[in-house]
């Protein structure tokens, strides 16, 4: 599938999803969701100002092997992240699409791309801590109740085997989020 067709189909899908599940006003977020909105918004701005430039430079060098030097940027996140994105880019330019992470997973399974030559996927969202993260958290922070632990997952995929992912451990303390471990796990591929 070509970039323009894929991008147009994705934008149409996002428009349908937002009609079904609109982005709420920021003042309707719970206190914890407000913190998620702040952290995700800040992470996106930092990625946009630092990480994206490096990716674009690498993609430019690789344009000889088919990488589009002007890729579509797909941001996936949670609803608080969409609130942040709506404030950052209320009318996104044609090369930027943002949607819920689960929505993109569903859409992508129906519109697979076998090479990531024309888009960049960046994700940033919170989820409850589980598995290995809980084991490490219990060791590093034995007094933190497991139910209060949150993982902030971030990452970027910009080509086949080209990207990175990171998990940060946070604790919801009733009125604020506190960062317990930055980069509790990290992978570059």
The overall average pLDDT, rounded, is: 93
Uncertain spans: none
Helix content range of the residues, please?
A: 40-55%
The arrangement of helices and strands along the chain is: HHEHEHEHEEE
> β content, as a range?
25-35%
Question: How are the SSEs ordered, and which strands pair?
Answer:
Blueprint: H1 3-20, H2 31-61, E1 72-77, H3 79-88, E2 96-100, H4 101-110, E3 119-128, H5 131-140, E4 149-159, E5 162-172, E6 177-188
Parallel strand pairs: 1-2, 1-3
Antiparallel strand pairs: 3-4, 4-5, 5-6
Describe the structure.
This protein has 189 residues and is of the alpha/beta class. The chain has one domain. The chain is built from 5 helices and 6 strands. Strands 2-1-3-4-5-6 form a 6-stranded mixed sheet. Helix 2 packs across helix 3. It is globular.
Summarize the structure in short.
The chain is α/β, with parallel strands linked by helices. The chain contains five helices and six strands, in the order ααβαβαβαβββ.
Protein traits:
alpha/beta; 189 residues; six-stranded mixed β-sheet; 29% strand
């Amino acid at each position: 599938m070509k970039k323009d067709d894929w991008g147009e189909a994705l934008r149409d899908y996002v428009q349908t999803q937002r009609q079904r599940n609109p982005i709420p006003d920021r003042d309707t977020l719970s206190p914890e969701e407000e913190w998620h909105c702040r952290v995700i918004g800040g992470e996106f701005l930092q990625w946009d100002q630092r990480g994206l430039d490096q990716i674009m430079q690498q993609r430019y060098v690789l344009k000889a092997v088919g990488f589009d030097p002007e890729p579509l940027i797909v941001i996936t996140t949670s609803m608080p992240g969409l609130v942040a994105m709506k404030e950052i880019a209320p009318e996104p330019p044609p090369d930027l699409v943002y949607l819920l992470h689960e929505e993109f997973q569903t859409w992508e399974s129906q519109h697979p791309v076998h090479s990531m030559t024309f888009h960049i996927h960046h994700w940033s969202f919170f989820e409850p801590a589980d598995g290995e993260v809980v084991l490490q958290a219990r060791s590093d922070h034995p007094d933190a109740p497991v139910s209060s632990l949150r993982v902030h997952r971030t990452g970027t995929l910009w080509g086949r085997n080209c990207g990175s992912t990171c998990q940060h451990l946070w604790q919801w303390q009733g009125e604020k989020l506190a960062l317990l471990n930055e980069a509790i796990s990290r992978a570059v591929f």
